[in-house]
Amino acid sequence: MKLTAERPFANPEAAARKLVELASGIEPVQDGRIHIEKINAPFLYALRASGEEFDAGIKMAVERGWLELHESGTYVRLLKAEATI
Fold this sequence. Notes:
This protein is α+β, with helices and mostly antiparallel strands. The protein has a single domain, classed as Orthogonal Bundle (Arc Repressor Mutant, subunit A), CATH 1.10.10. The protein has three helices and three strands. It has helices at about 10-25, 35-45, 50-65, and strands spanning about 35, 65-70, 75-80. The chain has a three-stranded antiparallel sheet with strand order 1-3-2. The protein is globular and about 45 Å long.
């Protein structure tokens, strides 16, 4: 008997890929910036992921060189196109 449902973004790589997919669908503002709330809200509320999954996904995307996270945490920049991931 299974008491909990599978978490699709429990794997940090899956979360990172989804975050990059979300970021690539957003029109960046000045200098390629994508405000963090533009990817945070859909990831947490529409996809029902957790904050820990979001954090792990962002960290993995930064480590892999897919996203650049500003030191303030207010925006990201997409570094590689989705097709190369």
